[in-house]
Amino acid sequence: MSTPTSTLGLLERYDRPGPRYTSYPTAVEFHNGVKDEVYVQHLARLNAETDRPISFYLHLPFCQERCAFCGCNVVITPHLDVAARYLDAVEQEIDLIASHLPDRRSIGQMHWGGGTPTYYTPQQLSKIFERISRHFTFTTDAEIGVEVDPRVTTHEHLDALRSLGFNRVSMGVQDFDPRVQEAINRIQSFELTRDLILHSRAIGYGSINVDLIYGLPHQSVESFTHTLSQVLDLRPDRVAAYSFAFVPWMSAHMKDIDRAALPSVETKLALLAATVDAFLGAGYRQIGMDHFALPTDELGRAVDAHTLRRNFMGYTVTDTTDMVAAGVSAIGDVQGAFVQNTKKLTEYYSALAAGRFPIERGYERDRDDDIRRYVITELMCNFRLEKAVVDQRFSIDFDAYFATELAALTAAEGSPQADGLVTVSADRIEVQPVGRMFVRNVCMVFDKYLPLRTGGPKPVFSRTV
Ligand SMILES: C[S@@+](CC[C@H](N)C(=O)[O-])C[C@H]1O[C@@H](n2cnc3c(N)ncnc32)[C@H](O)[C@@H]1O
Ligand code: SF4
Fold first, then answer.
1. Measured in angstroms, how far is the CA atom of residue 70 from the centroid of ligand 1?
2. SS3 letters for the chain?
3. Ligand 2 centroid distance, CA of 40 (Å)
4. Over the stretch 418-434, which tens digit does the pLDDT of each residue have?
5. What number does the ligand 2 atom closest to the CA of 151 have?
6. Using CA atoms, how far apart are residues 244 and 69, in angstroms rounded to an integer?
7. 235-246: average pLDDT
8. Which ligand number lies closest to the CA of residue 118?
9. Residue 2 has pLDDT above 50, yes or no
10. Choice between 363 and 450, residue whose per-residue pLDDT is larger
11. Ligand 2 site, residue 70, Cβ cutoff 6 A
12. Pairwise CA distance, residues 100 & 284, whole Å
């Protein structure tokens, strides 16, 4: 794929702050009217409604040092005793969740994210896993994944997690260029990363993912193309190539990043174009805007079948399931309600000591939210939306329900259709190849809350490009 001739015009029109749509409504809409009691009601509804396998997310936030670009919810400490105390609280939370669910409820998907789960020793990780297994049963085909930072991860970690049943591993790489690594405070050699990928493959992890970021300081198309070819040598099953979300107003440590060294918006778009070219050229399928998977990987197969879904854990082949979550800042999604735990360790500990869920805020979706959520997920994941499926699923007339949005999408001038990003026909909306880079902008047309969240004195979202 090459950058379109009118790229500059597209950038002028579409490069603006906008959500990444890991959820709809976005976390910005969460409010503190949703607490422990609401969550308990939704868990009761879950028990009454369905015995489908659930998803389980566990957040382990600790890292030894902070990477300058990091926008995740992390706790930086070299003190292992601080992190050990956290595990006791996590065990309490796992017990609390289980006490509201039937004994041995099945889990079809589990993900441990962070921070860096492998900050902990293999023994500590095994203990947490055993606590979960004490209450829950994993389905035979459960996806069980973990995020690891290669710089602190040993073969023993990978062996222990594999023997517990983990079958997916995701490694942060970001960029192999030494100049970029220095600027982001993350020195990580190609050889170290290769060793862990080869070991993971040898011991049977079915899917190995690598995270990259484009838009970091000192990146050029030439330098990043070299990183891409090194990644291709490793042939991971999946690659996530994130757009650098530069949000210094939210993450104060990002102020240390030298703005002058950041690539221009044109270069950033060219970096994405080079990434898409490299992976498609090597036989990967494009998953959403910025993920890639080998056709042998189940995500690659799902994209061919237009059956991809997305939740807080990332892209998945499992249709939306209820998700319980444990750990600071973790977000659950149970029977129409998002619930988010406090980000503060002290509050997390005190709520659990009092036998309460440490929920700080959340959001109960209504029908309109669910309709828009479906539309946005389809566009983000599968780049197309069949109007008849929405009509059937929600008993609406798509064209009438979304008359205003369709008019905005298809206006004769300056609209996503006029700019070649989408085509809207009687049956469907299809995102065109050039529109994939701007799919967030296409989804923004369907976001009811966005007009309320933009134009304020402080930005809320990172830029779409
Ligand atoms: C929790 S980390 C991955 C595991 C481990 N901590 C590591 O860094 O290797 C999740 C991923 O989020 C991505 N990420 C973090 N901050 C980001 C930002 N500001 N913009 C875009 N991607 C970001 C990085 O690619 C990172 O690998
Ligand atoms: S990128 Fe990973 S290792 Fe670096 S600070 Fe963030 S969570 Fe920790």
1. 6
2. CCCCCCHHHHHHHHCCECCCCCCCCCHHHCECCCCHHHHHHHHHHHHHHCCCCEEEEEEECEECCCCCCCCCCCEECCCHHHHHHHHHHHHHHHHHHHHCCCCCCEEEEEEEEECCHHHCCHHHHHHHHHHHHHHCEEEEEEEEEEEECHHHCCHHHHHHHHHHCCCEEEEEEECCCHHHHHHCCCCCCHHHHHHHHHHHHHCCCCEEEEEEEECCCCCCHHHHHHHHHHHHHHCCCEEEEEECCCCCCCCHHHHHCCHHHCCCHHHHHHHHHHHHHHHHHCCCEEECCCEEECCCCHHHHHHHCCCCEEECCEEECCCCCCEEEECCCCEEEECCEEEEECCCHHHHHHHHHCCCCCEEEEEECCHHHHHHHHHHHHHHHHCEEEHHHHHHHHCCCHHHHCHHHHHHHHCCCCCCCCCCCEEECCCEEEECHHHHHHHHHHHHCCCCCHHHHCCCCCCCCCECC
3. 32
4. 999 999 999 999 999 88
5. 3
6. 8
7. 95
8. 1
9. no
10. 363
11. yes
12. 42
Instruction: Answer yes or no: pTM beyond 0.70.
Output: yes
Q: Which residue has the tokens 């382990």?
A: 60
| Greatest extent of the chain over all pairs of C-alpha atoms, in Å | 62
pLDDT at residue 4 above 60? no
